[in-house]
Amino acid sequence: MTEEKKKVLEYIDSKADVITDTSDQIWDFAELSLREFKSGELYAKVLKEEGFEVEYPFCGIETAFLARYGSGKPVIGILAEYDALTGLSQVAGATERKELVANGNGHGCGHNLLGAGAMAAAFGVKKYLEEKGEGSGTVILYGCPGEEGAGTKSFMARDGVFNGCDACLTWHPSNVNQVVSGTCNTCIQTEYKFTGVAAHAAGAPDKGRSALDAVELMNIGVQFLREHMADSARIHYSITDAGGDSPNVVQPRAQVLYMVRSVWVRETLELLERVDRIAQAAAMMTDTKMEKRFIDGCANTVPNKVLEELLWRNFDEVGLPEHTDEERKFAQALYDSVEMKSTELPGDATEEDPEIWEFVDKASKHGTVPINEFLVPYHYSEKVRMGSTDVGDVSWCVPTAQINTATFPAQAPGHSWQNVSCGRTSLAHKAMINAGKILAATAVDLMEKPEILAAAKDEYEKKMKRYGGYLCPVPEGAVPTVPGAKM
Question: Which ranges constitute the DSSP H helices of 53-148?
Fold first, then answer.
């Protein structure tokens, strides 16, 4: 390891208290998508105190921020998230389900860790740039709120926010240590509101026009559509307003939120048009009025092998945190609390590479260890995974790559109380700091070795030519919106 990177890692360790305290406060706030006001203010305060130039709010989004340090090229971006999820309030460090606040929110996806770990990386790169002097490069930490249901990175991508970057790096809390490769589905969320006429359901049913009937007919129509769409496509829905609790009233209003997914943006847009026509038909059948509203959209990810290989080399060089017996005991208790355990081995690459499968099978003791204390070997992939992320839109604008670190016990499901419980403990803190170090070391390499950055850009340009360039799923004029808000 170079002396430059050693200094960066030591500096991150010296800032561990600031980083973990920020993560824990964000855990305490547990603010939902686009409502992360305390979280955004905290990041702005901490980053200003650490010598960054901060824009807050940013890009017309009240809870977004941008923190910059340095000058000149290259410009390395680091992505942060910090929103929580509903219904996942949980006492920290508990090994059984125990709400901290009744029906409260919780960081079941670990975004308290994600944002603070990204900030740790920015701290490390800032230290490197201070040593190198003016004009040696720039680091930008992008505070991206609302990943769970707003996809603000997509809006930022539409507005050209990332165009000045040379590369972007990020990470996500997980139950495994790996470099993420492959792609995912594009996803677009649309809200459909139907308005009818209220009437007495028994005394004057002919005078009523049921908005709830329209929602139900739309849902039935989409069910029949499922047979005639691509195998890789997905459609999900949630009735967000059923019109009231009185069955003897013809419901004059009803609302349904749809999520349409497919691999490519153009495919998703085409499928969405078919869903739109079904909604229009449902309104015609029920003699109601239909309004639709775009909520969010994100593109699939474009993997970058050059950046992924560099991340893996730094992951291997930095190494993994050591755990105490107490931390392993805690992980075991949470592992035991998971009722529906997966039969698959941890790590995305195990599905595609037999040698990696053998390695992970041995390292995880056939998938039975309570915490995965190993690094999954790197495997480049273009396989489509069924989830979606607005990191995809960034990857269409600039070479982008990301990692996972084991902040949670093995088998802990995504969006679970186990993750919330673990997210304010030393086990998670160690993995968060580890992620920050890996991203910072990788950024230093990109600044020290321009040939690697040039190779990453060359790979990106070739893929843009092959794929036809970025088609943003976010229409002009759309703004980040909280689902369920009044139209």
Answer: 111-132
